[in-house]
Structure formats: C-alpha cells, structure tokens
Amino acid sequence: MNTAVDMVSLSAPVKNFVSKPRQALIDGRWQDARSGETFDVFNPANESVIARVADCKRADVDLAVAAARKAFDKGPWPRMSPSARGRILWKIGDLILENLEELAQLESLNNGKPIAVARGADVPLAADLFHYMAGWATKIEGNSLSLSVPYTPDAQYHAYTRKEPIGVVAQIIPWNFPLLMAAWKLGPVLTAGCTVVLKPAEETPLSALRLAQLCLDAGLPPGVLNVLTGFGETCGAPLAAHSQVDKVAFTGSTEVGKLIVKAAANDLKKVTLELGGKSPNIVLDDADLDVAIPGAASAIFFNHGQCCCAGSRLFVQEKSYDRVLEGISKAARSIRLGPGLNPQSEMGPLVSKTQFDRVTGFLRSGKEEGARTVCGGKRYGETGYFVEPTVLDGTSDKMRVYQEEIFGPVVTVMPFKEVDDELIRRANDTVYGLAAGLWTSNIKRAHRIANQLRAGTVWVNCYNIFDASMPFGGYKQSGWGREMGSEVLKNYLETKSVCMSI
Ligand code: ADP
Fold first, then answer.
1. Distance from C-alpha of 199 to C-alpha of 444, rounded to nearest angstrom
2. Which pLDDT tens digit goes with each residue over 440-470?
3. Which residue(s) pair with 38 in the sheet?
4. 395-415: per-residue pLDDT in tens?
5. Distance from C-alpha of 428 to C-alpha of 475, rounded to nearest angstrom
6. Which residues form ligand 1's pocket by a CB distance below 6 Å?
7. Which of 175, 225, 208 is CA-nearest to residue 356?
8. What's this model's pTM, rounded to 2 decimal places?
9. Dist. CA 67 → ligand 1 center (Å)
C-alpha cells in the first residue's frame, strides 16, 4: 500500500469545502435539511469521515420541487432567449475548467478514483459536456409540415411542430462518476429550458454540490437547479414519486431503475433510465493483441470496474486464448493500488463498504461455483475498500459471476472457436445491452459483428471512449433513452403540433 507521505496535499478551497457541513440548494439558497439532520461522507481509501451533508427527506423534496415548479411556471429560465441560456451553459463549462484542480481533488477524495483520472477525464469531460450542450441551446428546432387531410380536401393549413421543455425534472445519479454523471444530466436538461431537482448518490455528494455553486456563479436563476443530498429510500423515492415532477431521469442499478418506473407510474411521469450492464468484449484471432490485451484490461479495470459499461465478459478466440489470458492477468497484477490522492496509484478503493461486500461476495460465489481465479480474488490491504484486480477463467454461463453485474474489477475470460452465430448468441445472452467491445483487424467482420450486437454502444479496437457528441445508453434492461449527443435532448423536450387553418 502506498503511504500517506506521498499524497497530494488538499488545496485550501477543498479543505475549506469539507470543513463545514454542506447544505442543500433549494430555490437559489443553501439550506439545512428541515429536520436539521446531517449524514457523514466517507473517504473510501481509509474509511474516515471527510464531510457532513444535509440529510434531506420528503419535506425537503417538497420544498425543492415547489421551487423548481415556480422557476419553471413563472421564472425566466424557460422564457430566456436560447442564446442567453447557451451563454450560461458555456460559462458553467468554463468555470468547471477554472476550478479543475479543486473538483478533481474532491472527486478523488470522495470517490477514491486516481487523481490523474479525475484531472484528465472526469473534470474535463464534465466541462466539455456543458460546452457541447451550450451550442444546442440555439438549435432546438421543430418542423413545418405539409398536410393532406382527406376529409377537408379544399382546406389549407399551416402546421408546424414546436419543441418545448418538458417541465420539472427529477434527476437521480450514482457514485461512480459523481461529477460527470451530474454534468451528463444537467447539461441537456438545462439546455432544454427545464428546471431540476438533482439528487447525487449518498456516497458521493460533494462534487455535485460544488458544481451547483458554479452553476449559480455562472448566472443560473434561483430555483432552476436544486440539489438535495439524501438517501435513496428517504429522498430519492419521494422525489421520483412526487406529483409535481414531470419527468424522472435516473442513472444507477437496474434494480433501482425498476423501482423508479413503479414510483413514476402512478401519474405516468416520463422516465429515462441509464442502468446496468454485463458487456461482452470479443477478441478475434486476427486482432492486434498488443493493442487488444491492454485494451481489454482497461475495459474492465478502468474506474476499478465501477462502470456500467465495463467489459466484464471477455470472449477470446481459441488460438489467442492463452496469450490473452496471460496478458490480461499480467496487466492486472501490475496495477498499483492505493489511495486516489496518491499520484502513484493506478487503481483506488471501491466506493463504499456496501460495494466492497458486494464485490467480495461475488468473488466467493465464483470460487464456490468452480471458477478458477487466475489472479487477484481478494481484498488488498487492511483498511479502505481495496479489491485486487481479478481474472477468472473456467466460468460457465450459469455462474453468477458470468450473469450478474459485479461492478468491480473482476473479469471472466471465456474461449470460443468460430466467429459464428453461436458467438453472437453468447455475446448477447444477458438481460443487459449497454455496450460491447470487439478487437479485430478485419473490417468486414467488424461491421457485421457490430451490427449484430444488441448494445447501445459498440467499441471496435478501442473501449471506454466517450464524447459529448456520441449517444450512450442501453438496449434491453440497460435502460430507456440515451445520454449525450443531440439524442439526449429528446429526454427533456415535448413535441407540440400546431395546426392553423389559413
Ligand atoms: P448502487 O446500487 O450502485 O449504489 P443505486 O441504483 O442503488 O446504485 O443508486 C443510484 C442512485 O439511486 C443513488 O442516488 C441512490 O440514492 C438512488 N436510489 C436508491 N434507491 C432509490 C429508490 N428506491 N428510489 C429513488 N432513488 C433511489
């Protein structure tokens, strides 16, 4: 384990930020929870308390939704010129970049991810999402329509569609990319002219609170963005079920996604969901293994495997099997584990005790069901939620480690003989359909296989490439709707047809 001596020392703004209990943002004002209660936020690298935040519950949900409702029904945001709205979004992106180091440190401290990843990926991607979306604010367009109404043959009409903001949106996000998931959600919802109540995950609320202040600093009017810190059942559930919410956008586990649908069903709120995955990653014999092996390692071990799109089922064609198994195991063994704030660390701890118990439970189940642990397979160190990067071989498609989303640094490696329908069947043989990877130098095969994989994203000779312009989301039980790209705006817009007799 790396020692504390080498740690990045927290900057003054970060120390200041965590030194006092953080309040919720409601109607443009930072406020305590109605109950006055707070809860602790932990550093997953050493299990110590790093901050306290407001423990928001139903009473706070009522206030935040009322503020968002008022801001939508009467406030300036939905009525502002698209250009003015776009400038505020752009400014949020700029402020994220200006505060990059502070946000990166908060993210690494609270989530456990390596500081270099937070600095190089999470924070710049969050800024880029706002910059990308800022451009869309002025490009939300309807169509003009040519009607041929059979029962009024002599009439003439001027008909067109308008795209209007959907209203008050509840957004509930997870802990694996706390700032980036907030950006993915807030960028488009604000661009569309909606107002929001955002609930970050209870494990990782800090960067979303800091982002909310940056949104205010950029000129977002009061009540447009409200942020409630709280737990799933006591804050998320009443938010998802609230009668004054028009739409719920959720990212998290498939299990909770189903609860969200039920909560929203009562008054038929619109719902979009970005859920779990068990993504196949396929290495063909004709692949460049010098690229495919590190690529497959990064596909599963990036962010400690805590990615909904992690390449957790690795299929390798027979001739290359031994080399890939050995290569990915070597890569796993060479990953330096340690606190995210140590710049030497390449993999940090899992985010929480719950997550640690879940992943180590899967490792036990794999052993019991007869999988062979080629490397890793256990806890690393004695404090913090570290788990060794793990490679399992000899798994069957009936095992839990093969079927269920582990959300940790654990890959199952399976051989296959031919590139045929059976390979595609096995790759698609999961309830999920979020992402897939393919490694080959044969372009024809690449296209054919990509077309047959039932997944929202297919990466060929690369993995985990994200861009604000590229839609991301799932087939099957991986979700409803897409994040990012122009596609995501559909989540937050209603289409109105206007028909005039002329
Ligand atoms: P994980 O299992 O990976 O922790 P979850 O799906 O439980 O992910 O959590 C994602 C988000 O959903 C978090 O913000 C969490 O508080 C919230 N959440 C959990 N349970 C509920 C629920 N019943 N209703 C609404 N939100 C919930």
1. 45
2. 999 999 999 999 999 999 999 999 999 999 9
3. 54
4. 998 999 999 999 999 999 999
5. 11
6. 172-174, 199, 201-202, 231-233, 236-237, 240, 252-253, 256, 259-260
7. 175
8. 0.97
9. 23
